[in-house]
Write a structure and sequence with these properties.
The protein is of the alpha+beta class. It has two domains: 262 residues, Aminohydrolase, N-terminal nucleophile (Ntn) domain (Glutamine Phosphoribosylpyrophosphate, subunit 1, domain 1); 177 residues, Rossmann fold. Helices cover 27% and strands 25% of the residues. The protein has 17 helices and 25 strands. The protein has a seven-stranded antiparallel β-sheet. Strands 5-6-7-8-12-13 form a six-stranded antiparallel β-sheet, covered by helices on one side. A hairpin with a 4-residue loop joins strand 2 and strand 3. Helix 9 packs across helix 10 and helix 9 packs antiparallel against helix 15. The radius of gyration is 23 Å and the shape is elongated. The N terminus and C terminus are likely disordered. Bound molecules: iron/sulfur cluster. The site of iron/sulfur cluster has 11 residues, from helix 8 and helix 16. Iron/sulfur cluster binds next to helix 8 and helix 16.
Length: 502
């Protein structure tokens, strides 16, 4: 479903503890492999045991960092983050890792997910640290992540680990966190384990990352998932695992459908295999007489392979994708904008002409992309177009870290499959059933979140006025001044750098 704005993922996180290694470069390549999870900004924080440095900026990982920046980030601990925003606007201040002062030093933090009790946490920060301390948020950081950073400040009677064990149970929503102080790397995952987070082993250290390909790219071997409700601490004394909440697993099923890389394994299940199986099931549920199965690249490809295998209809590439689309910050001119989808996809006319096509995609959100795509395929000479979707109709918004659209914008909200098919201009449309999608993940239905399809939210939501991406831009947030006592190397969007001293 390339093209339409959504669903967008809500960040990739990476952490490494490895004395003797160039940890900033490991974090860079880890983030590089997680780029699909967030393309708005990127950042890395490192510690050499005494001082934390942070370098972050707007843009892709490869745009933000160069050799000089990475060489400046020395130390043996690093965390990294690439962002797609679900709370707080797209600003440099909201880029991560965020920084905060603790009673004993500094904390840097990166977050994948979205909290649903930010309003409550704002009150908690104000109650604990008082209105006189002006903090990250008051300086313009309007993310739920900045709230967690502020809460981790703690007091002189508690270590960061003790503070984290007290704060983490108060967070509600989806959070896969990596954070660090000068000496220790931490990783934590919400009790539902909504977003993935895995632990890997290097010869001389440890790695945590959103997805398993980030372990592969730095040569780390997969050890296990960070468990839902678990806090991990890694330092010179080794790895410590602590439970801060009882696990109530509700992993995001959409990670299997679309969000995660196909070469990722989540809770023991290969995402690629799950997608192929979704395609096979789709062929069993919605067979059709046709000449060719084509995917909407890239995300529809594994399911199209599965559909072709099960149906016996040949698989072909009928659409070419510009691999670099979405990676330009240059806005197209009006003339180019009218060409719309052609910036991203172009039909192979000799493959398509005169054929009865099965077009396989992973999901339909607003439907604008599929409508334009079908028009384009007809212009290219397709005889029939049968759209097959490897997830059920998306009818509900996500509050746990994926930015779909408002409910009113979702095409399946109010229209049945047949009407959606008509509205898109397809000859037929078939969605996989909820049961079929879940079976393909090989996870028990009771341990998955499928709320965007069912409306059954596994983590209780507050009233509507306490939800929303820009909630924290509207709130008055009396927070502390976390930069007191910090040393941060930061680079502005304009490229000027500044070393902030205590
Ligand atoms: S609502 Fe949908 S996208 Fe959000 S966590 Fe649940 S399954 Fe994933």
């Amino acid at each position: 479903m390339p093209g339409e704005k959504g669903p967008q993922d809500a960040c990739g996180v990476f952490g490494v503890w490895a004395p003797g290694e160039e940890v900033a470069k490991l974090a860079y390549f880890g983030l590089y492999s997680l780029q699909h999870r967030g393309q708005e900004s990127a950042g890395i924080a490192t510690s050499n045991g005494e001082q934390i440095l942070v370098y972050k900026d707007m843009g892709l990982v490869s745009q933000v960092f160069d050799e000089t920046a990475l060489n400046a980030l020395n130390g043996h601990i690093a965390i990294g983050h690439c962002r797609y925003s679900t709370t707080g606007g797209v600003t440099w201040e909201n880029a991560q890792p965020t920084l905060g002062a603790t009673s004993s030093g500094t904390v840097a933090l990166g977050h994948n997910g979205n909290l649903v009790n930010s309003a409550e946490l704002v009150d908690l920060v104000a109650e604990r640290y008082g209105a006189q301390r002006r903090g990250e948020l008051a300086r313009g950081n309007t993310t739920d992540t900045a709230l967690v950073t502020a809460l981790l400040a703690g007091d002189e009677n508690h270590t960061l680990q003790q503070t984290a064990l007290e704060v983490l149970p108060r967070l509600r929503g989806a959070f896969s966190l990596v954070f660090m102080d000068e000496t220790t790397l931490y990783a934590a995952r919400d009790p539902q384990g909504v977003r993935p987070l895995v632990l890997g082993r290097l010869e001389r250290g440890w790695v945590v990352a959103s997805e398993t390909p980030a372990l592969d790219i730095v040569g780390a071997s997969f050890v296990r998932e960070v468990e839902p409700g678990e806090l991990i601490a890694i330092d010179g004394d080794g790895l410590r695992s602590m439970k801060f909440a009882k696990p109530e697993r509700a992993g995001c099923v959409f990670e299997y459908v679309y969000l995660a890389r196909p070469d990722t394994t989540i809770n023991g299940r290969s995402v690629h295999s799950a997608r192929v199986e979704m395609g096979r099931e789709l062929a069993r549920q919605h067979p059709v007489d046709a000449d060719l199965v084509i995917p909407v690249p890239e995300s529809g490809t594994p399911a199209a392979v599965g559909y072709a295998q099960e149906s016996g209809i040949p698989f072909g590439q009928g659409l070419m994708k510009n691999a670099y689309v979405g990676r330009t910050f240059i806005q197209p001119s009006d003339t180019l904008r009218q060409l719309g989808i052609r910036l991203k996809l172009n039909p192979l006319r000799e493959v398509i002409k005169g054929k009865r096509l099965v077009v396989v995609d992973d999901s339909i959100v607003r439907g604008n992309t599929q409508r334009a795509l079908i028009r384009m395929l007809r212009e290219a000479g397709a005889a029939e177009i049968h759209v097959r979707i490897s997830s059920p109709p998306v009818k509900w918004p996500c509050f746990y870290g994926i930015d779909f659209a408002s409910r009113a914008e979702l095409i399946a909200n109010g229209l049945g499959p047949e009407e959606v098919g008509k509205s898109l201009g397809a000859d037929t449309l078939g969605y996989i059933s909820e049961e079929g999608m879940i079976a393909a993940t090989e996870q028990p239905a009771s341990q998955l979140c499928a709320a965007c399809f069912t409306g059954k939210y596994p983590i209780e939501l507050p009233n509507a006025e306490h939800l929303g991406k820009n909630l924290l831009e509207q709130a008055e947030l009396p927070l502390g001044a976390p930069e007191d006592g910090l040393r941060t190397l930061s680079v502005s969007a304009g490229g000027a750098s500044a070393l902030q001293q205590p």
